[in-house]
Amino acid sequence: MSRPCAIPLLFRSLFNGTLQRMKLGNRNTQNAEVIAWVGKVAELCQPREIFWCDGSTVEKEALTAEAVRSGVLLELNPERLPGCYYHRSHPNDVARVEQCTYVCTESEEEAGPTNNWAPPAEMYRKLYGLCAGAMRDRVMYVVPYLLGPPKSPMAKVGIELTDSIYVVLSMRIMTRMGKVAYDELGEGTDFNRGLHTMLDLDPERRHIAHFPQDNTIISVGSNYGGNVLLGKKCLALRIGSWLGRKEGWLAEHMLILGVEAPSGEKTFVAAAFPSACGKTNFAMMQPPRHFRGWKIWTVGDDIAWMKPGADGCLYAINPEFGYFGVAPGTNVHSNPNATEIIKRDTIYTNVALTPDRDVWWEGKGEDPPAGTVDWQGRPWKSGEHAAQPNSRFTAPMTNNPMLAPEAMDPKGVPISAIIFGGRRSTTLPLVYEAFNWVHGVYMGATMGSETTAAAAGAVGHVRCDPMAMLPFTGYNMGFYFRHWLNMRKRITHLPRIFSVNWFRKDDQGNFLWPGYGENMRVLEWIVDRCHGRVGARETPLGWVPNARDFDLDDLPGFTREHFERVQQINIEEWRREILSQDELFMKIYAFIPKEMIFQRELLVARL
Ligand code: SAT
Ligand code: MN
């Protein structure tokens, strides 16, 4: 840094002035509701100070300096990784914790059988008890943020109160944080109230509780991204899906990308894959050389808010402003764009650290240099994880050279295709297309995926993860399917719906499809289908590409036979697949729309 002393001094003056500024009313907002609520929470949590964030660069520098001073962040090698910082979380706090995540609706039925439910009054009582005096020796930061582009009819304001400086700096990357949110809110009272305190990171006291009826979130006892960056999974998906049902739109665990053809034609698609199944890679894909003149534009890599427009199309915005991506496996082959994006202004969490203050993870490419320490700060030993499998980078989307200009458009982008995908080593072909919307909803509702390190628990077993939303639907999953079915009536130009699987393997465990940039070939077929330019063959599952139509040129070693194998439909495997859907269907049987049952019967009959 060019002025090593200036920042801490500035920081001290900012902090010393805080209480005084509070009294003077300099809170960056005059919104009475916000001020009253912050006062109420301060009374409960008893912070040493209150810091009202404005999102400015000066503030970022001051907070970063404080985070470094207090050991929360370590500055990385400024020549190689300018503006980048390193963070280690507590080893017991490295992923989302679904068993500690609650949806507190008035009735248990509203939360439904796939969510942990508790009565709101009971949960408030318990969490207020845990929060009482919890910030006594800490600063409480007031973090205003906007989800979605300013002036978008779909944008929403949230305010997170947190005692974690790591959360503040991460929220500043992940959302439009600061004054912009107050400007959007004005005198209004419609904002999400988020309260986060780390407590002592005791997993026994960890709770991530949602109160959809009050547009409120309380998260205690964690400092891991998905549990504490309340704009992300908590507001943008769990509360978002609840609001979406109420207001006639969809909050989905989907990337959004634009495909630009050599003709200049741009087609936007949204794709739902579960956590750590390649959404970020797909959203930033670089087409292989064979696709000269084609471009992929990223709108978002994790969350889509989609609403029917006046013209009858389905429009999507990315509510986020940054990427919270899985580090392991990120390299110039899997995601060349990301390797550029994360070279500056990035916070790394739980990756390994090299002696020259660079970062390392499994699948980065080269071997780690001698003296590398692992994510827990211990000398790394070969054969052990250097980076935690769910280690992450947090980087601003404005670093992305392929950021779609439309990502800033308040009206969003029109969606031509919706893609559902999972991580499946068997059964699921590379690509097929639904016969119609209702069939597509059934496909999404019954998708299964092998579990990953993004959530605490065993990895690698197949579980039903409808629309990749099992951990994120903030209400009854049966009602959620009904809402998807009902959307059909509100959209004149329905997107086509596809299923993809990049992860199918042969009996020896080798991947049958090269994946990564080559997924462009699948995308080309999908885009051509959307524009009615290519035919397809009917199968029991849906429409599949005619082998002659699927672009395999310039893909050495991959023949038509390989394509047939990755597309193969094995009737026995599919019978087992349908039986495995019982696990979810039985659980939500009382609420499941009958269309889902009929679709299943039709599939059985076709098989
Ligand atoms: O940890 S997050 O929930 O933010 C990321 C993910 O699991 O999708
Ligand atoms: Mn995600």
- Determine the mean pLDDT: 94
- Architecture (CATH level 2) name of the largest domain: Alpha-Beta Complex
Strand percentage lies at 15-25%
Secondary structural class: alpha/beta
Distance separating the two termini: 65 Å
Radius of gyration: 24 Å
Q: What do we call the CATH topology of the largest domain? A: Phosphoenolpyruvate Carboxykinase, domain 3
Q: What compounds are bound to the protein?
A: sulfoacetic acid, manganese (II) ion
Total number of helical segments? 19
> What can be said about the biggest beta sheet?
9 strands, mixed
In total, how many domains does the architecture comprise? 2
The low-confidence runs, each spanning 5 or more residues with pLDDT under 50, are 1-25
Strands, total number: 29
Structure notes:
By secondary structure, the chain is α/β, with parallel strands linked by helices. It folds into 2 domains: 4-72 and 95-247, Phosphoenolpyruvate Carboxykinase, domain 1; 251-322 and 403-606, Phosphoenolpyruvate Carboxykinase, domain 3. The chain is built from 19 helices and 29 strands. The strands form 6 sheets. Strands 1, 4, 5, 6, 7, 8, 9, 10 and 11 form a 9-stranded mixed β-sheet that branches. Strands 12, 13, 14, 15, 16, 17, 23, 24 and 27 form a 9-stranded mixed β-sheet that branches. A 5-stranded mixed β-sheet has the order 2-3-19-22-18, with helices on one face. The model is unreliable at 1-25 (pLDDT under 50). Manganese (II) ion is lined by residues 253, 275, 302.
